[in-house]
Write a structure and sequence with these properties.
By secondary structure, this protein is of the alpha+beta class. The chain is built from 13 helices and ten strands. The strands form three sheets. Strands 1-4-5-8 form a four-stranded mixed β-sheet, covered by helices on one side. A four-stranded antiparallel β-sheet has the order 2-3-7-6, with helices on one face. A two-stranded antiparallel ribbon has the order 9-10. Helix 1 packs parallel to helix 5, helix 6 runs antiparallel to helix 7 and helix 8 packs antiparallel against helix 11. About 45% of the residues are buried. Bound molecules: flavin-adenine dinucleotide. The site of flavin-adenine dinucleotide has 24 residues, from strand 1, strand 3, helix 11 and helix 12.
């Protein structure tokens, strides 16, 4: 059961990440934003210091470690929050690699796939990406046009992807394509593991972006890419269902990113409100400024409450889909608003790159879009509310997670 108390070990881990970020991340945050440097050296350093996964770690040990992590997501989230407070884009690049790419392989892959592809990404030796979005299909995941045609012991993949985090540099890519062209809607989609040197796989230059500029984003093009059948991830034609699990985790992680963003801009705004003077007073004296600060604090407390709730739901093996969507919807919009409020508190200085709040506001906007837009989060939540006569409105009534149940059954078929 959740306790509002950290163990000494958890406190130490958070402190260590804080110190690491002060020394290894903050001096480079602006350079990341200006795209002068790539995030991968810092990412590798972070992983080498904080990840328990080494060259000798076995797949079974990683599985156990991930199980523990999911049961104690708060500790892990507090570490991510520290990274986000320093550079949200670093957190995005790292999460897309270790959670979205390697995490999906750990969730859906077989032992060989985990060993060959997930472990090197989790160790930081390789960079991972997950490729779902296409030029004509973002929110409309059903509408992807990439195809994977079976040809003997191979699948031949054709199509293109866009807006893919880490695409310009990824070594391992989880790529979604249609395997049954006649199947309607979400049916007939499968996931494949692609390697960067597969003939026919090319990539575009990193995009110029508004925010999260330290996380390279780009396109992928597949022209008759020959992928061994061993690289089919999960069950053929079940890719969409398995993707839903990744999406739920990504959306819950969005709240963690928003906490880091809001906490940092609130810290900066408080410092500024205590020192900047106008009309012979610190601006923190003015009620208009105080209200903005209080609004930010309320957002932060709500986001933490959502984190505690989603963590507990996940730890208890309950269905995260609707709660993660509603949480991301709230946190995403609230964090962007908090970013705009921070800029107002700083006045003209808030608009200048000399202070960090404008970057955090630009970064916050992405969390509203990536992993499903606000509107899509509303649709998912509305579907949950309307599909049953008695939907689980109280978090205590949320049913078991169908994905975890399926995975447990796969592991223990006799149960
Ligand atoms: C920096 C960045 C990193 C990203 N990283 C990745 C990644 O690593 N992997 C990946 O696969 N994708 C990634 N994405 C893509 C992201 O998931 C999509 O941009 C997002 O899902 C929205 O899709 P879209 O851009 O095609 O917008 P569209 O789907 O075209 O939507 C445009 C607008 O229409 C609205 N809309 C669409 N359908 C509906 C509807 N039914 N009802 C109401 N409104 C609707 C949307 O909410 C939005 O406001 C990334 C995007 C960005 C910007």
């Amino acid at each position: 059961m959740f306790e509002l108390k950290l163990t000494d070990e958890q406190k130490m881990a958070r402190e260590e990440v804080r110190k690491f970020c002060e020394k290894e991340v903050r001096p480079y945050t602006r350079a990341l934003d200006n795209e002068e440097i790539l995030p991968y050296d810092i990412m590798r350093k972070y992983i080498s210091v904080f990840s328990p996964i080494t060259k000798d770690t076995t797949v079974e040990e990683v599985e156990k470690f991930r199980e523990q992590k999911h049961k104690n997501i708060i500790a892990d989230s507090l570490m991510s929050i520290e990274v986000c407070k320093s550079a949200p884009s670093l957190s995005l690049a790292m999460g897309a690699s270790t959670e979205l790419c390697a995490g999906t392989i750990m969730n859906c892959g077989n032992r060989d796939q985990k060993e060959k592809y997930a472990l090197p990404v989790l160790r930081g030796d390789k960079i991972g990406a997950i490729a779902i979005t296409e030029p004509t299909a973002g929110s409309d995941v059903y509408g992807i046009k990439s195809t994977a045609r079976k040809d003997g012991d191979y699948y031949i993949i054709n199509g293109s992807k866009t807006f893919i985090t880490n695409a310009p540099y990824a070594d391992v890519i989880v790529y979604y394509a249609k395997t049954d062209l006649d199947a309607p809607g979400h049916k007939g989609m499968s996931a494949f593991i692609l390697e960067n040197d597969m003939p026919g796989l090319t990539r575009g230059k990193p995009f110029e972006k508004m925010g999260m500029r330290g996380s390279p984003t780009g396109e992928l093009f597949c022209e008759d890419v020959k992928v061994p059948k061993e690289n089919l991830l999960g069950t053929e034609n079940r890719g969409f269902y398995e993707l839903m699990e990744t999406f739920a985790e990504e959306r819950a992680w969005g709240v963690v990113m928003d906490i880091g963003i809001v906490e940092r801009i609130l810290e900066e705004s408080l410092k500024y409100a205590r020192t900047r003077t106008a009309f012979g007073q610190n601006i923190g004296f003015f009620q208009g400024v105080q209200w903005r600060l209080v609004d930010m604090y309320v957002v932060l407390m709500n986001c933490y409450a959502l984190l505690f709730m989603t963590s507990e739901i996940r730890a208890q093996g309950k269905d995260l889909t609707a709660v993660a969507s509603a949480s991301k919807l709230y946190a995403g919009e609230a964090a962007t608003r908090a970013g705009l409020d921070a800029i107002s508190i700083f006045g003209g200085y808030g608009y200048m790159a000399e202070y960090p709040v404008e970057m955090f506001m630009r970064d916050a906007k992405l969390v509203e879009i990536g992993g499903g837009t606000t509107e899509i989060m509303k649709i998912i939540t509305a579907n949950m509310l309307l599909k049953d006569e008695n939907p689980p409105l109280c978090p205590f009534d949320i049913p078991a997670d169908p994905f975890i149940t399926v995975r447990e059954k796969r592991k223990n078929p006799d149960k």
